[in-house]
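REQUEST FORM: STRUCTURE PREDICTION
Request ID: SP-0412
Submitted by: Lab K.M.
Chain count: 1
Length (residues): 449
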Amino acid sequence: MGIVSFMPERDYKSFFKGKRITVMGLGLLGRGAGDAEFLAKCGAILTVTDLKSEKELRPSLAKLKKYKGIRYVLGKHDLADFHDVDLILKNAGVPLHSPYIAEAHAQGIPVAMSASLFARFSPGPIVGVTGTRGKSTITHLIYEMLRAAGRKVHLGGNVRGVSTLGLLPKVKPGDITVLELDSWQLQGFGEAKISPPVAVFSNLLDDHRNYYKSDPEQYFKDKAQIFLHQDKSGVLVAGREIAKKIRAIAKEHGWKGKLLLPKDLPPAFTLGVPGEHNRENAALAVEAARVLGVSEPVIRETLANFIGLPGRLEFVRELRGVKIYNDTNATTPDATRAALAALAPVKPILIMGGADKELDMKKLLAVLPKHTKKIVLLPGTGTDKLAFPPSLGRKTVRVTNLAGAIREALDGAEKGDVILFSPAFASFGMFQNEYDRGERFLRLVRALK
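STATUS: Completed
RESULT:
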């Protein structure tokens, strides 16, 4: 099946050259710095503003040091920077009802995001992937299948260190770009009223309550922007559990695309990563790959060779017969439950805890007594709110830092045991983000004698 692409309105260099652009949110993941660098190279007149201080942003600022014309407003935002400009580039995580974005809208200033701007100017077709869980795995599986099929393919969106806008010089007509898109990035697609012509929507689970608490349904509405603006040639591959919600909002918006619900992955298809949740992810990726014309032998070979992603049930090492896994990207209770199910019938020593996202922990707490040998708790606002059932007894131990958690997990661990670092909470407070958390865990574990 063929796919269509957005035709650029004009050359992106001409569009950005000389434009006065406020970049809202530099961040530390490399994407914001990459966007600013791309715009500077295009000749835009930039103001970069972030609530973090110059000291906190030092790694990102170092990447932009050679671009002398960038003006910085750090440690605060100033309403004046949202007046008299040509464009606001909003990065992920900007508050849902930001007064600065509201001011830009009131002034008639366009607000865009990196991924949606890329979609507007990309000369090649785009595949978009979203969902509460599994979107990273699905994105990378589709990318690897296309690559194995000999297609020229690029990877972007919610990928650490990758500026999606910065991909534009690399993408040639006919190249495919696979974008992992979170709800924040899809706000930009909603603003631009565009959707990728091929989209995957894996699932909808409880997440980001701290962000969407004033309007929980907005979380789904933001996610739905991945398909709502498709024309009749558009294709959406979706998990069966959310098909009803998708059909309802699709009917409301008069969506004309095609909805595909994948079948279970056949038992004969081997997968290089454990867990039923990963077989569900793989089934979605397989359906999208078929839409994109990838052959069955290539699909099967790619699945068998796929070893997973860093920070997602990642096997780190075996120490004295104890296997250690890094699942730092499990920032929700559902993700930790999936990791426990993937390792069953083994009952791991679980390291968990962190910052509160205002999510319901009841289902996770209910499975912990039967599915864990011991629980080591990191400090955090979420950990403080946990109410463990009496059946956990002396299984739980609180520690003050990550090094202490690893020591406690290893203390009493026997040959054949598994240590699982699957926090179920956000990382903020102790760490910069979940990647920083995972990297520190890896360093500590790899340094063990």
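NOTES: The two ends are 53 Å apart (CA to CA).
Reviewed by: T.R.
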